[in-house]
Each structure stands twice: as structure tokens, then as C-alpha cells.
Amino acid sequence: MSDGHGHTEQGHTGRGHTGHSHGGHGQGGHNHGAGATARQLTIALVLTGTFLVVEAVYALLTGSLALLSDAGHMLTDVTALALSLLAVKVGQRPADRQRTFGYRRTEIMAAAVNAAVLLAIGFYILFEAVQRLLEPTEVQTLPMLIVAALGLVVNLISARVLIGGDQDSLNVRSAYLEVMSDLLGSVAVIAGALIIMFTGWNWVDPLLGALIGLWVVPRTWSLLRASVNVLMEGVPEGIDLDALRADLAALPGVTEVHDLHVWSVTSGQNNLTTHLVSERGGPELIHAAQEVAGRYDIGHVTVQLELPGHHSDPGVAARLHP
């Protein structure tokens, strides 16, 4: 069994050998700087979440669809921050007898639920925008302008809080990009408030709301699709299964590759299991296969070797003790 640092276990079923290793993405890895990362995410989450409530309330009071759309967009930021914080917290829990892969898939389950909710919000905003474009309503521009400006300040502060950790943590980096993208929404609402204030063109508000909605929906759909792919144990995005199979088949002595499975437990934790048929298989071939998998960013690898004509039952493997 791997100890989480690349060491390998050898075993056999009577027909072949198995090798098992964890790369840097295994659940046994250390989470350096997790405390600092959690603090950064918590500060940004409190700032953004508090302002989300304020913006949603004032969007209803002012009648601004653009402000409501921006609140919906900010909800995506709050979701991203919360999921990133959840990943840090839950990812620290070790695997146990009930959850042998650990608890990191909680992040994906939460992402799927939130993406479905946000998608519904995005479509509602688009529907409401069409209604208001047909029948424009009066908008209170001054409160709309003030709240949007405050939102811009909150996003700037959140970005400043996260900027220190976005180089060290993919979670923080994704949250940082979410906050930065929300700056566009705040700028759009400010521009809309100024245009309406000086021209009286109330149709600008639902137009901006529709544009923000069109910005939110594709990103939310992408999040939902990626989450469902992980939950369905699909091949992780960015991995070409045919190319991976070809690279494994090209290893010296390999005559067949079968039962190849590649999936993710959560983002950044890719797993692979496969059977390789070879006349002269051994530890060297297992290590070579693990190196191939590593080039595809797969850190948790299980390889079983078989002799030609002995299709192994993947059922029970007996462990060899040196």
C-alpha cells in the first residue's frame, strides 16, 4: 500500500502483479498553509456575503433589475468562496472506515446543488429582463448608484485579501478570479445608474440585467456540468483517455491494456486503475505505468499486470509481504 509519498506495494492474484501508488494529490497529502488560507477565505466570505444581503434588499427597494442581477452574480462569488473554504476544512479530515477516499467530494456535491440554484436564478433574471424591456419601469438611480459603488469597494477589498494566497492554492485562485469577475458587474451597474440618471433611459437597467444574466448562466452551466461529471465518475476534463491508453500500450512489453478507468474524487484528485497484459511484467513496468499516469496529472494509480491469455478477475488480490 502506498504511504502517500510515492512508495509502491507489490501483490499478485496468482496470474499477475499489482502496483499501487499515491502521487501528490492523494488524500494523505499535507495541507500546508491551510490555516492562513482559511482565514483569507473567511474574511472574503464575510465581506461578500454581508454585502450580498444588502445588495439584494436594495435591488428590491429600488426596483433595479441590474442591481438584482449583480446580486445574483455576487451569489456565485459567495458560493465559490464558501466551496473553497469548505474544501480547505473538509479536506483536512482523514479517510476513515466509512469514507476510504476521505470527504473531499462534499465540495463537488455542494457545487452541483448551488449551480442548479444559480442556474434557475440566472434564467429568472433573463425572463424578468425581457418583461421589463417590453414595459420599462422607473428605477431609483441614486440608491442604485450608491449600492453598486459600495459593491465595487467590497470586491476590491476581497480581492486584496485573497491576492496573497492565489499563487499557492487553486481553491483561493478560483475564488479570487470569481471576485475579480464580479468587479465587471459592479462597474456595469454603476454605468447604468449614471446613464439613467442623466438620460432617463430606464430600459438601460433591464438591458444591463440581461447582460449580467447572460454572463452568469454560461459560467453556472459550466460549473454544473463539471460537478455532474465528477459525481458520475467521468473522465476528468483535460485528460485524453485515448492518448493515455496509447501511451500505456506503448510501454515495453505491454501487449494489451484493458479495464482502464480514470475518474476524480474531487477537483485535483484524479485516480486511475488498469490491467496491463505483458510477458515480462514486473515492478519496472508498474513504475513506468505510474510515470505515464503522472504526466496526465493522475496521482492515485493502481496497476495490475497479467500474463497473456490470463484475463484476471479483478476480485481479490492477495498481498505479498517481503
Task: Explain the overall architecture.
There is one protein chain. With 322 residues, the chain is of the alpha+beta class. It has 2 domains: 9-16 and 236-319, 2-Layer Sandwich (Alpha-Beta Plaits), CATH 3.30.70.1350; 34-231, Up-down Bundle (Alpha-lytic protease prodomain-like), CATH 1.20.1510. Helix content is 58%, strand content 13%. It is built from 8 helices and 6 strands; from the N terminus they run ββαααααααββαββ. It has a 6-stranded mixed β-sheet with strand order 3-4-5-2-1-6. α2 runs antiparallel to α3, α3 packs antiparallel against α6 and α5 runs antiparallel to α6. The two termini are 13 Å apart. Residues 1-16, 24-34 and 314-322 have low confidence and may be disordered. It is a multi-pass membrane protein. Residues 41-232 form the Cation efflux protein transmembrane domain. This is Cation transporter.
Quick tags:
322 residues; alpha+beta; Alpha-lytic protease prodomain-like; six-stranded mixed beta sheet; 8 helices; disordered N terminus; disordered C terminus
CATH architecture of the largest domain: Up-down Bundle
Q: What about the largest sheet?
A: 6 strands, mixed
The class by helix and strand makeup works out as: alpha+beta
Percentage of β-strand residues: 5-15%
Gist of the model:
The protein is built from 8 helices and 6 strands; from the N terminus they run E-E-H-H-H-H-H-H-H-E-E-H-E-E.
